[in-house]
Write a structure and sequence with these properties.
The complex is a heterodimer. By secondary structure, chain A is of the alpha+beta class. Chain A is about 20% helix and about 20% strand. Chain A has 3 domains: about 100 residues, Ubiquitin-like (UB roll); about 100 residues, Alpha-Beta Plaits (2-Layer Sandwich), CATH 3.30.70.20; about 100 residues, no CATH class. In chain A, strands 2-1-5-3-4 form a 5-stranded mixed beta sheet, sandwiched between helices. A 4-stranded antiparallel beta sheet of chain A has the order 13-12-11-16. By secondary structure, chain B is an alpha/beta fold. Chain B has 3 domains: about 210 residues, Rossmann fold, CATH 3.40.50.11540; about 100 residues, Ubiquitin-like (UB roll) (Roll); about 100 residues, de novo design (two linked rop proteins) (Up-down Bundle), CATH 1.20.1440.230. A 5-stranded mixed beta sheet of chain B has the order 8-7-11-9-10, covered by helices on one side. Chain B is globular, with a radius of gyration of 22 Å. Classes of the chains: A alpha+beta, B alpha/beta. Chains A and B meet through helix 2 of A and helix 14 and helix 15 of B. The complex binds flavin mononucleotide, iron/sulfur cluster (2 copies) and FE2/S2 (inorganic) cluster. The site of FE2/S2 (inorganic) cluster has 13 residues of chain A, from loops. The site of flavin mononucleotide has 26 residues of chain B, from helix 4, strand 4 and helix 17.
Chain lengths: ~325, ~450
């Protein structure tokens, strides 16, 4: 085990752990935001640069600071490393810069976006963005397209995190999904709009940190904060059948995988609990699911507001009893 | 004329053919290395030569070679980076076009030194005619026993293949080159691991520029110590310079490192001065990625000493008053050239070539390009100049690969040295449109 310090808090982790995962082991405020890294997807990370941190001391053996900010999701810790996240002015500036970059070509159409309320870019913008913009140019725009009959792609909102590309690559058997073009004119695409026709293709919706990939069976049905998420399971031959059903009154408005506080699909029986398209898109009938109970949503985001349970028992008690 | 190590026989008729090349002493280094030297000896000679990578970064080649991991039973690869796409740089093309066998010869000796049995030349997609020339040279080398199994009875096997790129500047970045060679999208990888440990197909790999590899030939022939006698300090040997812009004699020159910049620009032996009797206004000494120098800092440093064509002297003064030797793309601007337009032109290139993987470079290069375009076309305001400075500070150092920095530095330097000209564009938009822009009058949109 190696010892590292993140924002004055010491933690012991396995050698080879990334700075981000060491911070996640501590949890809470010291965890840098991660828009592209996804622990369940091999090769992800390093791209969005929102997770930049300052390394104030490289290691116990060589305590020199690193000259540049580093991407915490793809930099392994060294014994004795001292990392500054929240406590670094440079990090705050760097992150504000990245946030600005991510937003200059973003349509800011949250009012009509299904992801609003559970969008990681909204959270990032809320914490690190500015009220105004210095961008006076025309924004890059694309028309929304269908990726198959169940998924909608709003390329305007995409931050090119590549998560969906890795998902399509790693959990579906045919690679038809990737990135075309370069630079700010790059776009994700199923090659020449060929639909991803695969039992697990719907998972690209769950990994997308923004509203670029959305569920057409749920489009414009409701805002997420009006829904009650419930852990539910079903007998399924294709996947583990462990999902979250989002209830609007007595109806299932949508079905998603079980995501943790970082937006990552939780493990089910030691494997990532990706759900199949049938569970996601076709089982909207309550009788098909065994509802286990309320789902804890633990995120600093709109979606956590108005819910009955959090990870904080004291707050829960207050909510339930009003005291 | 100065000494020629690489271009010695460039004017011999038929030198691109095997027979003529061989008659002029070609493939001697392969004979010498395979018959009398161990691979380690070759590496040592290259270390002794002080040769620094000619692809832009100037990293010592011998040191790079010594870092190559050598795990048992894992193949190693040598990749030649012939993706030359930096605006202002065209020396590799010249070398491959005129002396294809020099590159093949260099590849054989270098591969031998590294213990590689399969090597690749990754060539820029736009250089298809050059590819054909080099391909022919490779076929001739095979036919004459310099490639293939058991070369010269030494027991050493080497296959050499050539692979065309798809026309992306970013594929010149070594890890993007590797991805592209593997048949993937040319996105730079996140380092570490470095190619020396995990490169092509996960195996230890060395990537070197065409000119670096060609320079190994004279180093092996004459010895590293002999090579190191040329030049000054840590800038040893000769360097190919691609001279372009408003010069009397633009072209590819082989110079001894250490030549003074003044002599290079003005002497009749080299560029012959500024064309049409004009005065020099600015110079980009190392390809589009390096900071631009204003007239007063080209031939002299800020301290008033002579500026020399070396890695150190061109960098003297740091970003405040220096630049870099880079890949040796020496671009000269005369008094009629518009710095704003040129800066926009470079920015347009980087915005077009950014791979788009990381947010600061993807969004920042596009943003700078748009702001510069407005300034150039008289629709800017003074705020924009500060905004540009801000944007490039935010890109710099925050990206996966150095393309982000390469896009930021030229803009930063242009504003540092030519701020008045930017301001003039804002305050005199109509005037700015009427000027003669010479070389930079390409209106074709790139995208
Ligand atoms: C965006 C970018 C483009 C590059 N293009 C080239 C190129 O066209 N040719 C080249 O030799 N090196 C290029 N390089 C440098 C290579 O990454 C690498 O450092 C070089 O090939 C190493 O060879 P050397 O040590 O012989 O110079 C580029 C680097 C970057 C970041
Ligand atoms: S569509 Fe979503 S998941 Fe895919 S690259 Fe864009 S932001 Fe990332
Ligand atoms: S710096 Fe630019 S070119 Fe390099 S990896 Fe990032 S986006 Fe791609
Ligand atoms: S999460 Fe680390 S760069 Fe995106």
């Amino acid at each position: 085990m190696v010892k590292v310090i993140v924002d004055d808090i010491e933690v012991e982790v396995e050698p080879g752990t990334t700075i981000l995962n060491a911070a996640r082991k501590i949890g809470g405020e010291v965890v840098p935001p991660a828009m592209c890294y996804y622990s369940k997807l091999e090769g992800s990370g390093g791209k969005c640069r929102t997770c930049l941190v300052e390394v104030a001391a490289g290691s116990a053996a060589d305590p020199r600071p690193m000259p540049k900010l580093v991407a915490s999701c793809s930099t392994p810790v060294q014994d004795g490393m001292v990392i500054k996240n929240k406590t670094s002015e440079r990090v705050r500036e760097g992150r504000a810069a990245v946030t600005e970059f991510l937003l200059i070509n973003h349509p800011l159409d949250c009012p009509i976006c299904d992801q609003a309320g559970e969008c990681h870019l909204q959270d990032l913008g809320f914490e690190h963005g500015k009220a105004g913009t210095r961008y006076e140019e025309k924004r890059r725009t694309y028309d929304p397209i269908d990726i198959g009959d169940k998924i909608k792609l709003h390329m305007n909102r995409c931050i090119l995190c590549y998560r969906c590309v890795y998902t399509a690559n790693q959990i579906t058997d045919n690679r038809v999904h990737g990135v075309m073009h370069r630079g700010d004119h790059a776009e994700i695409s199923t090659y020449i709009e060929k639909a991803i026709d695969n039992d697990f293709s719907g998972n690209v919706i769950d990994v997308c940190p923004v509203g670029a990939l959305t569920d057409k069976t749920f489009r414009f049905k409701s805002r997420v904060w009006f829904l009650k998420p419930m852990n539910a399971s079903c007998e399924c031959t294709k996947c583990a059948g462990k999902a979250v059903v989002w209830m609007f009154g007595d109806e299932i408005a949508r079905v998603t995988g079980r995501k943790d506080q970082y937006g990552e699909i939780e493990d089910v029986d030691g494997k990532t609990g990706w759900i199949c398209n049938e569970c996601r898109f076709d089982k909207k009938d309550k009788s098909k699911w065994n509802i286990e109970g309320p789902r804890v949503i633990n995120r600093h985001s709109v979606i956590s507001q108005g819910h009955y349970l959090t990870n904080d028992p004291k707050r829960d008690a207050k909510k339930l009893t009003g005291k | 004329m100065g000494r020629k190590l690489l271009l010695e026989h460039v004017n011999v008729p038929g030198i691109e053919t095997y027979e003529v090349y061989r008659k002029n002493g070609g493939y001697r280094s392969v004979e010498k290395a395979l018959k009398t030297m161990s691979p380690q000896n070759v590496v040592e000679e290259v270390q002794a030569s002080g040769l620094r990578g000619r692809g832009g970064a100037g990293f010592p080649t011998g040191m790079k070679w010594s870092f190559l991991a050598k795990p048992e039973g894992v193949p190693r690869y040598l990749l030649c980076n012939a993706d030359e796409s930096e605006p202002g740089t065209f020396k590799d093309r010249y070398l491959m076009e005129k002396l294809p066998h020099l590159l093949v010869e260099g590849m054989i000796v270098s591969s031998y030194a590294l213990g590689a049995n399969q090597s690749y030349i990754y060539i820029r997609g736009e250089y298809m005619f050059v590819l054909e020339i080099v391909e022919k040279a490779i076929a001739e080398a095979y036919a004459n026993g310099w490639l293939g199994k058991n070369i010269m009875g030494s027991g050493y096997d080497l296959d050499l293949a050539i692979c065309p790129g798809g026309g992306a500047y970013i594929c010149g970045e070594e890890t993007a080159l590797i991805e592209s060679l593997e048949g993937k999208r040319g996105n730079p990888r996140i380092k570490p691991p470095f190619p020396a440990v995990k490169g092509l197909w996960g195996c230890p790999t060395v990537v070197n520029n065409v000119e670096s590899i060609a320079a190994v030939v004279p180093i092996v022939n004459d010895g590293g110590a002999e090579y190191a006698k040329i030049g000054i300090g840590k800038s040893t040997g000769t360097k190919l310079i691609s001279a372009s812009g408003n010069l009397v004699k633009p072209g590819v020159y082989e110079i001894d490192l250490g030549l003074s910049v003044e002599e290079f620009i003005y002497s009749d032996e080299w560029c012959g001065g500024i064309a049409n009797g004009k005065k020099i206004k600015a110079c980009v000494p190392g390809g589009s990625s390096v900071p631009i120098l204003p007239a007063n800092l080209i031939c002299k440093t800020a301290e008033g000493t002579d500026r020399l064509m070396t890695y150190e002297s061109l960098a003297e003064g740091g970003f405040a008053s220096g630049s870099m030797l880079g890949s040796g793309g020496f671009i000269v601007f005369d008094e009629d050239q518009c710095i704003v337009r040129n800066t926009w032109n470079f920015a347009r290139f980087y915005a077009h070539e950014s791979c788009g993987q990381c947010s600061p470079c993807r969004e920042g290069t596009g943003w700078m390009e748009k702001v510069l375009r407005r300034l150039e076309y008289g629709q800017g305001n003074l705020r924009d100049i500060d905004l540009l400075e801000e944007i490039n500070k935010k890109i710099e150092g925050n990206t996966i690969c150095p393309l982000g920095d390469a896009a930021a530095w030229p803009v930063a330097a242009a504003i540092r040295h030519f701020r008045e000209e930017f301001e003039w564009h804002v305050t005199n938009p109509d005037e700015a449109q009427k000027r003669n822009f010479g070389i930079a009058s390409n209106h074709m949109p790139l995208v």
